[in-house]
TrEMBL record:
Residues 1-438 form the Major facilitator superfamily (MFS) profile domain. Its main location: membrane. The keyword Transmembrane helix applies. It is a multi-pass membrane protein. It is found in: Cell membrane. The chain crosses the membrane at residues 42-63, 70-88, 94-117, 129-150, 156-174, 240-267, 279-298, 305-327, 347-371, 383-404, 416-434. Gene3D superfamilies: MFS general substrate transporter like domains. Keywords: Cell membrane, Membrane, Sugar transport, Transmembrane, Transmembrane helix, Transport. The lineage of its organism: Eukaryota, Metazoa, Ecdysozoa, Arthropoda, Hexapoda. One of its GO terms (molecular function) is transmembrane transporter activity. PROSITE patterns: MFS. This is Putative transmembrane transport.
Length: 454
């Protein structure tokens, strides 16, 4: 799990690194021969990532249905090309293609890696191991923010290019998922894979028999998987699919990803005294702390409790932020005192947004692609992860595009309250319908899913 999460760390560095670089590309000191970026170019540079994610979800999701290890290993390729393009860039189109490839890699990260980790993890530790992916992503984002602020844009690619090659090499040493090997009727290889991940002296017979029975139930012992309409429309599958759909829509529309993408605009509109880069460091640290807390307690308190706390905390944070920006926009709170110093209340934006981000990464953001494999039946997990990533990417693309437009019509405080309301609705859905999957085998969770919300 640490090895496969390593590529997520490296990928997130590239995403975080671009945030302060956006400001450089917009300035008079831009390295682009065409001059500073226009608002239209910046908009496409930010949102084209989501288009890449949709392609990545399909490509890596398809490969991952049959070869979990290969799908994970191939994530290193777009990361490698990303840094090569940054190194040799001559115009904005190099950045467009690099950003598109970054999206493709991200689609692979959240589609292939959760499947691989869920297949190789013991049920008691699956939540903690699954949290390694979002933890690596947030830590990498924070590292990228720091590097982008202090390191030269012309030197960082030289340090980053060798790392994806190292990852691809290390992945060759890991075995394929035991579930996939059983599905391919390679029982001896599956046993060796289980021994590798459980330890050479572990008793893996019960788990191996469980895998064999599961595959036999799925396709009657055939090595070629055949999907039927009933695989998706039976009551148990449909409930898991609907809950997975809720999870993937709650991720972009909870507001955390949108705020992080437009963090400089948000803090400028809010009247905060902090510079955008300084605010980015603090919010980035809140991301890391939130995922770390989730990692420590997810297998102690369970998914439902963390999701409930998460959605409630995000809602409160955005509500406070909305109230503050409403009061400042209507001149009910002065940003500066009469003596030219900042009003003490100007600390509210960074506190409220950091709190919202922290609570978001404790649950609703970091757990998205851990929950899909847990909520859906084993036979359709691969397809559900792929389609889920595609839907999430499309929803994120729409959200990123309309956020600046809505800011002009309903102001920042209106958007904050919309996010707060959406998170309250998510809280109700979690409490009423979300099944608890903590510590349960992936092959029995779906049998309990239908009981929740009857």
């Amino acid at each position: 799990s640490l090895t496969v999460s390593f590529i997520a760390l490296i990928h997130a560095i590239s995403l975080g690194w671009l945030t302060p670089i956006f400001l450089v590309l917009q300035s008079d000191d831009t390295p682009l021969p065409s001059g500073p970026l226009t608002s239209s170019e910046l908009s496409w540079l930010g949102s084209i990532l989501c288009i890449g994610e949709m392609f990545g979800a399909v490509i890596y999701g398809y490969i991952g249905m049959y070869r979990r290890k290969l799908a994970t290993q191939l994530i290193g390729i777009p990361n490698l090309i990303f840094w090569i393009l940054i190194l040799v860039h001559e115009n904005i189109y190099y950045f467009y293609v690099a950003r598109l490839l970054g999206g493709i890699a991200f689609g692979g990260l959240v589609t292939a890696i959760p499947l691989y980790i869920s297949d190789i993890s013991m049920p008691a530790y699956r939540g903690a191991f699954g949290s390694l992916l979002p933890f690596a992503m947030t830590l990498g984002s924070l590292i990228g923010l720091t590097i982008g602020h202090y390191a030269s844009m012309s030197t960082i690619p030289y340090a980053m290019i060798p790392i994806p090659l190292i990852f691809i090499s290390i992945m060759t040493l890991l075995p394929e998922s035991p579930y996939i090997l059983v599905k391919r009727n390679k029982i001896d290889d599956a046993a060796q894979s289980l021994k590798f991940f459980r330890g050479p002296n572990s008793n893996i017979q019960d788990e191996l028999e469980n895998l064999k029975k599961c595959v036999q139930n799925e396709n009657s012992g055939k090595t070629n998987i055949k999907y039927e309409i009933k695989d998706f429309t039976n009551r148990n599958s449909l409930k898991g699919i609907l809950m997975s759909l809720f999870v993937v829509l709650a991720n972009p529309f909870c507001g955390i990803f949108i705020i992080f993408t437009y963090i400089s605009t948000v803090f400028e509109e809010s009247g905060s005294y902090l510079h955008a880069n300084e605010a980015g460091f603090i919010v980035g640290a809140a991301q890391v702390l939130g995922v770390f807390i989730s990692y420590l307690i997810i297998d102690r308190f369970g998914r439902r409790i963390l999701l409930s706390i998460s959605t409630l905390g995000v809602s409160v944070g955005f509500t406070v932020m909305g109230i503050y920006t409403y009061l400042t926009k209507n001149f009910l709170i002065e940003i500066e005192n009469a003596d030219g110093t900042y009003n003490l209340l100007t600390i509210i934006p960074i506190v409220s947004l950091s709190a919202a981000v922290l609570f978001g990464y404790v649950g609703i953001v970091s757990m998205t692609f851990m929950l899909i494999p847990e909520l859906t039946e084993p036979k359709i997990r691969g397809i559900c992860c792929t389609v889920g990533m595609f839907i999430l990417s499309f929803a994120a693309f729409i959200a990123l595009k309309i956020f600046p437009i809505l800011m002009e019509s309903i102001q920042l405080y209106g958007e904050m309250w919309i996010f707060a309301g959406f998170n309250l609705i998510s809280l109700l859905i979690v409490v009423l319908f979300m099944p608890e999957t903590k510590g349960k085998s992936l092959f029995v969770v779906q049998s309990e899913t239908i009981e929740v919300g009857k």
